[in-house]
Amino acid sequence: MLPEALICLLNVALAFAQTQQALPLNALASFTPSNTPKPPVLSLPTSSNLSVTVALCSSGNNPRFFVTNSSDAIPGSSGGKSVFEITLKDGYGNWTGPFRDGGVLAIEDVGQSSFELGVSEQGPIHEILPNLPLLGDTTSNQALLFSPAFAISQNDKPTYPNYTLPPANASLPEPPSDIPNFTLFVSPTSSLTPLPQSGCMLSSQNSTGTVVNQSLWLKDKQGWRTQWLLEALTPATNYTAYVVKDRTKVSGPINFVTKSATFACPLVFGLPYCPNVAYTVPLPPPTGAGSNTYTAANIPAEITTPLLSYLTNFTTSLTSFACGRDWYSPLVGCDDCQREYRRWLCSITFTRCGEPSPANPDSFTRSLPAPTATGLSALQPKDKNNPTAPQKVFSALIPQASDISKARSPNLPAMGSQYSMLLPCIEICTAVDRACPSLVGFTCPTVQFNAAASYGVGYTDSADGDEGQGVTGGPQDRWGNIWCNG
């Protein structure tokens, strides 16, 4: 027979366990100082594999969270068998493991903290997403931003004998029905205090700027994104942006810088036949009341008519090759060729504007390279006075006079003021070369001779063409640097 004292302790423990608040399975529970249990101990459901996530919704306090998969013990900082602390980083923590007999979660140093707890058998409810938001471009007071891609466009590849390609004036396909709830959060980087980077914390803050357009956009083959046009920003200011998915999953941060107050190029976006165009273009200011950007509704016909004609003619020529019963490649087809040609043609037609970073105003090409320019255009020449100093990366920016826009894109009307042209990345050209039949005759300038005269070379791929081995590894990065138009 058990001693009377032990029986009393067991009865007390059993009674305490029965009064613990249970966390719901596959659901989110929110706690504030007014509804946090006292003592802050909660029971966990039975599961062979359970993810317990924590998200801090307030700053100041530093609570600690402990779990155990023993239902008759109270976990804490004193440790013990099968006691684990959920380590927090940036206000977020996760612990996944078996709870075959249930378990207990206890909180120490709660103070006046607000937090969320997620318990799920389907993976973490709270999460830092691996894919980042995407910056389209900025003007002096606008920014075009995209969420991470969330759904691949399910377009069936054309097959013989019904081998048809999309028309030149293509429209976007139907968007997916299951669309995540994305929320954009933007703040001047200088005023962003150290806060928990959780969805509930970011959602409680005031976002800078005004969202004047939010839509779905299929920008590239990575898939559908939510697109935001943000206005009422401050010129020459560094901003930080996050995107929160379904309130609990955070993507970011990324940084971007608005252009100077004298920057004149307007944004061009929302062109279904050129879905990759989402940046500033050297065009005169849009006409019409309240219009300060170009979209498919007001883009000049003298630009689009030749573009669509070129693409129509190319498509007609392309379908005369082995696109149906016979294939010219086991890896790509004529639909891939047309898609990459469209991307290249749009990038060439819509010249991209740029501006040196205010923090590094000398980090760009100061003069147009000669037609015979050679070498790696992504790197500045070594400093002769300091030969041991590392070479610096500069953007493929070339200053342009107000009447030289036709030198790159003959269909663009005169800009009317000076601007800097951001050259396309050479990979936009080589992607067409790889995807199209050799008999099409599409070729790109070579790095050994004159590629650097008209393309940004050496950023994504190396000078020898090694994929992803360039000096930056991509056309832009998460810190707001844009090296070439990719």
UniProtKB/TrEMBL annotation:
InterPro entries: MID1/Yam8. Coiled coil: none annotated. Pfam families: Mid1 (PF12929). One of its GO terms (biological process) is calcium ion import across plasma membrane. Residues 464-486 are annotated as: Disordered. Keywords: Signal. One of its GO terms (molecular function) is calcium channel activity. Residues 1-17 form the signal peptide. It comes from the Eukaryota. This is Stretch-activated cation channel MID1.
